[in-house]
Amino acid sequence: MLIVNLKNIPNIWCWVTVAIAMFTPVTSAEQGDQHAAPNEVANSFNAVSTLYFIGYAHDPKTDALIYIEHHTMKQNSNGEYVSGKVEYLWPDNSLMAVKQLQFEQRASAPSITFKEVDTEFKINIRSQPNTVDISYQEKPPADQWSIPVTKQQPIVIDAGFDRFIVQHWDIIMGGQPVAMEILAVSRGSFYDFEIRHLGSKNGLVEFEVKPTSLVLKWWVDPISVRYTIENRRLHQFTGLTNIRRVDDPDENFEAVIRYQYPKHPERNVEQTPSD
Predict the structure, then answer these.
(1) In which domain, by residue range, is 150 found?
(2) Is 273 within a domain?
(3) Fewer CB within 10 Å: N-end or C-end of the chain?
(4) Is residue 265 included in any domain, yes or no?
(5) Lowest-confidence range among 67-76, 203-212, 262-271?
(6) Is the CA virtual torsion 89, 209, 20, 157 positive or negative?
């Protein structure tokens, strides 16, 4: 997964949960589930298949491998996501952090837990029909918020970023920027962003995500993501990640993350992808 961190004012890191780890197109049935009866939602979220993929995070200046992401996603019969798990590993394959996802409510706003293995840092986000409940802890005690939301709000939490992209794929590809509200976890607030199409080449399409606020634009660099046009899967992410630096936990890694979709989940050998 990629949770994107956002530095919006001096000395404050805002965790903006934008992981871009979901790559199956959203169907009309999935959108309808948001308003379905409880038993209908439960039936639609029966997992029948598993998708595996791996992200390799590289230093943008030296291209050195920083860490690895192992994604395991459960899907229902419509190809919609039911739940997921992401394991973050250092280059020596030692476990660094784990994330769990549940997609009971909105496709673009899953519930998540994120925990670093060797520290007390953890995040819990519960996506409810009318609220988003947050617990954010660097050290005990945790900060907690409950944010009112409506079904009409274009909110985005963590891996729901990708769900949002495929839901609005045709509009974005047509050249029209699309607005969304991204959750900044450490601030307990949503912030206005937009995503736009930058161009297409060699079977890939590039999108840019950036804040709409003039103030945030001073502190937040745009994020670049490339998708394959044929199957709408993430090919590359460039920007600030959710993984804290070992030498300075107040800072997070900048990275270029390249994604691969091996046929066998046990494979962990990086191949050089084509651009």
Answers:
(1) 4-260
(2) no
(3) C
(4) no
(5) 262-271
(6) positive
Within a domain: 125: yes
64: burial class by Cβ within 10 Å (0-12, 13-18, 19+)? exposed
Q: To which residue do tokens 């965790």 refer? A: 15
Secondary structure (3-state) at 24: coil
Q: Quote the CA–CA distance of 45 and 63 in Å, as a whole number.
A: 39
Q: What span, in angstroms and rounded, lies between the C-alpha atoms of 189 and 181?
A: 9
Please count the CA atoms within 13 angstroms of the CA of 135 that sit on its side-chain side: 14
Q: Tens digits of per-residue pLDDT, 170-203?
A: 999 999 999 999 998 888 899 999 999 999 999 9
Total domains in the chain come to 1
Lowest mean pLDDT among 39-43, 53-57, 265-269: 39-43
In a domain, 160, yes or no: yes
Read off the pLDDT band of 30 (50, 70, 90). Answer: very low
Which element (helix H / strand E) includes 261? none
**Residue of 265 and 100 predicted with greater confidence:** 100
Torsion of CA 242, 243, 249, 252, to 10 degrees: -60
Q: According to the model, what pLDDT value does residue 157 have?
A: 92
Is residue 227 within 8 A of residue 165, CB to CB? The reply is: yes
Residue 259: phi and psi, rounded to 5, are: -105, 140
Q: Give the 3-state secondary structure percentages of the chain, helix then strand then coil, rounded to 5.
A: 15, 50, 40
